[in-house]
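--- STAGE predict ---
source: upstream dedup step, 1 unique chain passed
mode: sequence only
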Amino acid sequence: MNTSPTARELIANCSALLLDFDGPMAALMPPPRNAEAAQRVRHAAAVDLPSDLRTTTDHLAILRHLLDQPDALARAEAEATAAEIDCARTCEPAPWLPDLLTETHYRGIPWAVVTNNSPEAVCSFLSRFKFAAPAAVVGREPSTVARMKPNPFFVSVAVRATGASTGTALFVGDSVSDMSAGIAAGARMLGYAKTPGRGRELICAGANALVSPGLSISEP
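--- STAGE serialize ---
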């Protein structure tokens, strides 16, 4: 699929490119790996959880629930990082990522990763490929679980790391929480949508344009 003219213009003219990891860069935890990661985190937490978290496949939801239980959170966060690193060692880049990073490197546009996953997982993934190095990898640390997106904190830190101005930085995300975080930080938003339904959600959440898996930004 091609980008729309608006999406192509956003990419070409941004002062910095910020990429969410799981989705726009790689399918980090496709089923059943997401369920396996959530189970590992539940087991490590070793506390009673609400019924919805006993079956969730979203390991980050479990971390959020444990914010007021520091010992359990520390155990769960360490296991979440280990599970993410395991997945990062085998997941493949999103189809558009090589062209996208080649294009931004050619144009001299700095880029950074903004993710609720651990920076260690992102670095493990990037070490497998010959992509231009990011200006920063801003992700979940044990001390910043409470600042995960939709909090704009990670986005703001990444913008500063690139040296760009917030209003001309472009954040690519695939969730409503990504849109909320980027908009709150003052960035422009590009929604990465795998389905028409997700695309509508992202537009409603404030995406300036959409891109889809399989696109090539080098096509006319």
